[in-house]
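FAQ

Q: What does a record look like?
A: Structure on top, sequence underneath. For example:
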């Protein structure tokens, strides 16, 4: 059955946990969907793990639309959330609504996600008023990496913790149906979760959130440029892939591949006529 914003609201009410993973293509989306994961985020982490950028700043609306189209075709049941890239909503309310609309109309997303708290509350409200569900994202917000000066845990001082709580309350008031909380001490994320009526999805925010999200290449050991402390490596598929690619290389060079069972036949008579 299709997961919707109502599934998220019900999970909060019934205190059942929600699972979310990123995906950027059709076949991965199908695998994640078929595993029963509630939601797929077409994150702008696309910039790092798929496009090879150092950060998410260069990701465009076109990039996210292109990958969301593929993911939405593979996600029959999972709720597809498309990330709004850097400068697609920071500029003004008008840009925010137009770009959120493109992710829904062209990408076929079920919801959008954007980063920020109090300062983007007017954009969240306008997008929600246009009939588009919004997932907010507070704490470490990677699009602001240049302002933060690096990937740092957020909300550790009293002032910063208060600001995070204000941000969470502001995005809820603006109409967001969920909020991702990234790289925040567990006790603070748990407190925010208790204060909110909407779902919190943690990444590096401990076990007290209503759900969890991970970048799938991180959890499968397929991306080694950097691995945050909060990532659990469930498998080392990256190493497995390298070994398989090596084997293929050896077999191509030794003519072990392709074997007879991988080839097509033609009558010898026909071939002889061509010599
Ligand atoms: O872009 C992304 O993948 C994200 C998650 C890390 C939450 O925003």
């Amino acid at each position: 059955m299709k997961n919707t914003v109502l599934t998220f609201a019900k999970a909060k009410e019934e205190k059942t946990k929600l699972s979310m993973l990123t995906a950027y293509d059709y076949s991965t989306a199908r695998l994640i969907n078929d595993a029963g994961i509630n939601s797929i985020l077409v994150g702008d982490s696309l910039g790092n793990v798929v496009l090879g950028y150092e950060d998410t700043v260069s990701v465009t609306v076109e990039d996210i639309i292109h990958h969301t189209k593929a993911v939405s075709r593979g996600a029959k049941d999972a709720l597809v959330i498309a990330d709004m890239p850097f400068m697609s909503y920071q500029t003004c309310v008008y840009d925010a609504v137009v770009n959120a609309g493109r992710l829904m109309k062209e990408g076929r997303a079920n919801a959008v996600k954007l980063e920020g708290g109090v300062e983007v509350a007017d954009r969240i409200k306008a997008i929600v008023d246009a009939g588009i569900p919004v997932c907010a994202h507070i704490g470490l917000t990677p699009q602001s990496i240049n302002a933060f000066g690096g990937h740092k845990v957020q909300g550790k001082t009293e002032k910063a913790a208060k600001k995070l709580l204000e941000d969470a309350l502001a995005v809820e008031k603006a109409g967001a149906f969920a909020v991702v909380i990234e790289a925040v001490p567990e006790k603070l994320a748990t407190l925010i979760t208790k204060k909110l009526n909407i779902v919190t999805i943690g990444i590096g925010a401990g076990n007290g959130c209503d759900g969890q999200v991970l970048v799938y290449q991180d959890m499968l050991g397929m991306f080694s440029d950097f691995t945050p402390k909060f990532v659990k490596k469930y498998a080392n598929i990256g190493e497995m892939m390298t070994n398989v690619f090596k084997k293929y290389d050896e077999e191509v060079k030794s003519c072990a591949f392709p074997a007879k069972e991988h080839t097509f036949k033609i009558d010898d008579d026909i071939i002889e006529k061509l010599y």
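Q: Is there anything notable about this one?
A: The chain has two domains: 5-236, 240-273.
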